[in-house]
C-alpha cells in the first residue's frame, strides 16, 4: 500500500473500495458457518490503525479488482490496450509506445546480444495466429506457471506440491448478509463430518467468496467438482441451503513454496518478477506483496538504463536484492502454512496422513489396484478422518474431545495458528548488498530468521532498508503548509535521489557536494533539510543562504503526535550530524550516522557510484586521489 500511494490516488481508491476492516479482521474456526465456533483470532491490533510506522494501513482487496484499477491507472497515463480483434489488420505492425496487447500468449523467446525476439500467439476470427515482437528486454510476470520462465530454462528451487486444491469462486448475497450480521471474518476454517474447507470472504456486502477444498487426483478429477456438486459441498459447509448461490468458476491448483534459481537470463534481457520468480502458500499476502516489491525495485533500474543514467549491469542488483527476500518469505510462508495445519492436527485430523495414504495409493502397492477401488479406499480414509469431528466426540464432556479443544485454545492463545500480518517482514525487509553502500558497522548476519509469528516493525535507516515514515510539514512562504509523509519526499514520477540532512553547516557542505556529484553523473537529486519540531517560523531562510545558488532543495519540519514522541533522527537510530541518501524506490542507498570524515565530494561519488553501479567511475576517482 505504501508503494501504491505513489500511483495517483490508487491507495486511496483501494481503501475506499475495500470492505470495512471490521468485516475482515478475524479468522474464524467452526463446525459450519451456522454451527459451533471452535475459536477465532483477531489479527488487527491498535497500532495497526494509528499510522505511526506507516502512512497507510493494511488492505483486503481482491486481485481481479486491483487489476481493474491498475488498468485504469495505465489509461490515465495514455496507455491503450488492444485485443486481437481490436487491432484491425495491424497484427504485424511494430508496437507503438504505450500499447498493451490483451489475449496474447508468449510461445517463444530468442535473445541475442542486443535484442530479444518474442513470438506471441493469439486467436483471431477463430484461427490461431502468431506475431513477432522485437524488444530490448522481456519481463516475465506471467504467474506461477510462467511460460517465460520455462522458455528461459530457469528451474524452481524449494518445496513442491505442498497441497493440491480446488478453488470455487461463487456469489451469494444470502450468505454474505448472514455472515455480515452474525460472524464477520476474512477466513473461515470449517471442519465437520461431511466436509472440510476454507472459505475466503472477499466481500461480505457483495456476497463474494472463494472456497478452497483439498483435491486428490487422479482418484479425484475436476469432473467430480461440477457446479452442482460444489453447491452441495458449500451447503454442507454453511450448514443450510442458500437460495441465491451462483458458482462462477472452478479451478484446480497446486500449492508450492519455491523460488527461481535465478531472476535474470540471456545477458539480463529476460527477467522474472512476481509469481513467475517465486510462489508461496496463499497465507499472509506474501505472493502479492513480494511481487509488488519486485516491480518497485525493478522499475527504477530499467528506467535508469533507458535514460542512460545507469549501465545495464545495474540489473544484476535486482537479483542480488530481491532473491534473498523471496527465499526469506518462502521460509516464512511455509511456517505460516504449517501453523495453519496445527488446528486440524489438534482436532485429530493429521493432514500428513491423508497425503501419505494418497502417495501410497499413487506410487506404492495401491497403484496396482483398480481405479474404482483406489477411490473407495481414499474416500474411506476421508470419512474415517472426518469422524473425529463428530459432536459426540468433540465436546467438553468427552475426555478426548475436551483435551483436543484445550489444545486448540492453547494454539490460539499463543499465536501459533495461521497469521495474517507480518509488519516486520512487509515493511522491515532490507537489502544487505546491491545498489547501495553496505553498512559494515551494522549486523553482518542480516535480519533475524523467520519464526512464523507476527513481529512488530522497528524503523531504521540502515542501508538497504525502506526509508522510515514520519509526518513532516513543508516549510514555505505560502500560507498553507502541507503535512506529508517522509516517503512522499521521494519523487514518484522521475528518477531522482534524495539527500536528507539536518540544518547544520557541515551537512549543508555535504549537500553541495551531493548536488554537484549528481550533475557529474547526470542524475536528478534533491536535498531535504529536516528541521526539528517547534522550529520558529521563517527558519527556512537559513537553508536559502547556506545552499545558495541551489534551488533543488526543500525545508520540512517534524510533526510529532506528542511532545515525548521520537525525533526523526532517533527513529532512524542516528544523530542529526548524519545524512541519508534515498533511492527512487524509497530504499536507503547510503547513510552517514554522525558526520563526514574526509572529503565530502569523494564520499558522495562513492555513494552515487554504488547506487548506480558505476564501478569504473568510482575506480577512476579513487585512482585520482
Can you describe this structure?
This protein has 16 helices and 23 strands. The protein has helices at 10-17, 63-76, 147-151, 173-182, 227-238, 286-306, 316-346, 351-363, 371-386, 399-413, 423-426, 505-520, 541-546, 568-571, 600-612, 615-624, and strands at residues 26-30, 37-42, 80-82, 99-101, 105-111, 116-124, 127-135, 138-140, 156-171, 187-191, 196-203, 208-214, 246-260, 264-265, 270-272, 278-279, 471-475, 483-485, 496-501, 524-531, 553-558, 579-582, 588-592. The protein is an alpha+beta fold and 625 residues long. Strand 5 and strand 6 (116-124) form a beta hairpin. It starts with 9 loop residues before the first helix and ends with a helix. Strands 2-1-10-11-12-9-13-16 form an 8-stranded mixed sheet. A 7-stranded mixed sheet has the order 18-17-21-20-19-22-23, covered by helices on one side. A 3-stranded antiparallel sheet has the order 5-6-7.
Strand and helix layout:
Layout: H1 10-17, E1 26-30, E2 37-42, H2 63-76, E3 80-82, E4 99-101, E5 105-111, E6 116-124, E7 127-135, E8 138-140, H3 147-151, E9 156-171, H4 173-182, E10 187-191, E11 196-203, E12 208-214, H5 227-238, E13 246-260, E14 264-265, E15 270-272, E16 278-279, H6 286-306, H7 316-346, H8 351-363, H9 371-386, H10 399-413, H11 423-426, E17 471-475, E18 483-485, E19 496-501, H12 505-520, E20 524-531, H13 541-546, E21 553-558, H14 568-571, E22 579-582, E23 588-592, H15 600-612, H16 615-624
Parallel strand pairs: 1-10, 3-4, 8-15, 19-20, 20-21
Antiparallel strand pairs: 1-2, 5-6, 6-7, 9-12, 9-13, 10-11, 11-12, 13-16, 14-15, 17-18, 17-21, 19-22, 22-23
Amino acid at each position: 500500500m505504501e508503494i501504491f500511494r505513489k500511483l495517483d490516488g490508487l491507495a486511496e481508491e483501494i481503501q475506499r473500495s475495500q470492505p470495512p476492516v471490521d468485516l475482515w479482521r478475524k479468522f474464524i474456526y467452526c463446525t459450519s458457518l451456522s454451527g459451533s465456533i471452535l475459536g477465532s483470532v483477531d489479527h488487527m491490533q491498535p497500532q495497526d490503525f494509528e499510522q505511526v510506522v506507516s502512512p497507510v494501513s493494511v488492505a483486503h482487496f481482491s486481485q481481479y479488482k486491483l487489476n481493474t484499477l491498475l488498468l485504469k491507472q495505465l489509461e490515465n497515463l495514455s496507455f491503450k490496450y488492444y485485443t486481437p480483434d481490436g487491432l484491425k489488420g495491424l497484427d504485424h505492425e511494430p508496437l507503438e509506445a504505450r500499447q498493451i496487447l490483451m489475449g496474447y500468449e508468449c510461445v517463444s523467446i530468442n535473445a541475442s546480444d542486443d535484442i530479444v525476439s518474442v513470438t506471441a500467439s493469439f486467436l483471431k476470427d477463430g484461427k490461431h495466429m502468431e506475431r513477432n515482437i522485437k524488444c530490448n528486454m522481456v519481463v516475465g510476470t506471467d504467474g506461477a506457471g510462467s511460460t517465460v520462465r520455462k522458455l528461459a530454462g530457469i528451474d524452481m528451487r524449494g518445496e513442491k506440491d505442498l497441497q493440491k486444491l480446488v478453488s470455487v469462486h461463487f456469489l451469494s448475497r444470502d450468505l454474505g448478509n448472514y455472515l455480515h450480521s452474525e460472524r464477520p471474518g476474512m477466513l473461515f476454517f470449517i471442519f465437520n463430518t461431511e466436509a472440510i474447507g476454507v472459505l475466503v470472504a472477499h466481500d461480505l456486502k457483495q456476497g463474494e467468496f472463494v472456497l478452497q477444498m483439498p483435491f486428490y487426483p487422479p482418484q479425484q478429477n475436476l469432473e467430480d467438482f461440477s457446479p452442482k456438486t460444489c453447491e452441495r459441498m458449500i451447503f454442507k459447509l454453511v450448514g443450510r441451503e442458500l437460495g441465491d448461490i451462483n458458482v462462477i468458476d472452478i479451478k484446480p491448483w497446486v500449492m508450492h513454496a519455491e523460488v527461481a534459481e535465478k531472476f535474470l537470463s540471456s545477458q539480463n534481457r529476460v527477467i522474472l518478477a512476481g509469481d513467475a520468480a517465486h510462489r508461496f502458500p496463499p497465507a499472509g499476502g506474501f505472493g502479492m506483496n513480494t511481487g509488488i516489491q519486485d516491480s518497485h525495485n525493478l522499475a527504477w533500474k530499467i528506467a535508469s538504463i533507458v535514460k542512460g543514467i545507469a549501465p545495464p549491469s545495474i540489473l544484476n542488483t535486482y537479483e542480488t536484492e530481491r532473491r534473498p527476500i523471496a527465499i526469506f518469505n518462502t521460509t516464512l510462508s511455509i511456517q505460516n502454512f504449517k501453523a495453519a495445519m496445527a488446528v486440524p492436527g489438534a482436532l485429530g485430523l493429521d493432514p500428513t496422513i491423508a497425503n501419505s495414504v494418497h502417495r501410497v495409493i499413487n506410487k506404492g502397492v495401491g497403484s496396482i489396484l483398480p481405479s474404482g477401488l483406489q477411490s473407495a479406499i481414499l474416500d474411506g480414509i476421508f470419512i474415517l478422518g472426518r469422524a473425529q469431528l463428530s459432536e459426540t466426540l468433540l465436546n467438553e464432556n468427552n475426555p478426548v474431545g475436551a483435551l483436543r479443544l484445550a489444545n486448540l485454545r492453547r494454539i490460539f492463545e499463543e499465536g501459533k495458528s495461521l497469521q495474517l500480518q507480518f509488519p516486520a517482514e512487509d515493511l522491515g525487509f532490507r537489502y544487505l548488498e546491491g545498489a547501495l553502500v553496505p553498512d559494515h558497522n551494522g549486523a553482518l548476519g542480516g535480519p533475524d530468521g523467520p519464526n512464523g509469528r507476527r513481529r512488530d516493525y522497528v524503523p531504521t535507516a540502515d542501508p538497504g532498508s525502506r526509508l522510515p515514515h514520519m509526518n513532516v510539514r513543508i516549510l514555505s512562504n505560502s500560507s498553507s503548509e502541507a503535512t506529508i509523509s517522509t516517503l512522499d519526499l521521494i519523487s514518484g514520477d522521475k528518477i531522482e535521489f534524495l539527500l536528507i540532512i539536518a540544518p547544520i553547516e557541515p551537512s549543508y557542505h555535504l549537500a553541495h557536494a551531493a548536488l554537484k556529484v549528481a550533475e557529474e553523473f547526470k542524475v536528478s537529486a534533491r536535498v531535504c533539510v529536516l528541521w526539528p519540531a517547534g522550529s520558529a517560523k521563517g527558519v527556512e531562510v537559513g537553508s536559502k543562504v547556506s545552499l545558495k545558488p541551489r534551488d533543488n532543495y526543500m525545508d520540512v519540519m517534524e510533526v510529532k503526535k506528542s511532545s515525548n514522541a521520537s525525533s526523526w533522527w532517533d527513529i532512524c537510530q542516528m544523530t542529526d550530524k548524519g545524512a541519508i541518501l534515498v533511492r527512487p524506490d524509497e530504499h536507503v542507498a547510503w547513510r552517514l550516522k554522525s558526520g563526514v570524515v574526509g572529503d565530502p565530494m569523494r564520499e558522495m561519488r562513492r555513494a552515487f557510484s554504488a547506487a548506480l553501479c558505476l564501478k569504473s567511475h568510482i575506480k577512476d576517482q579513487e585512482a585520482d586521489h
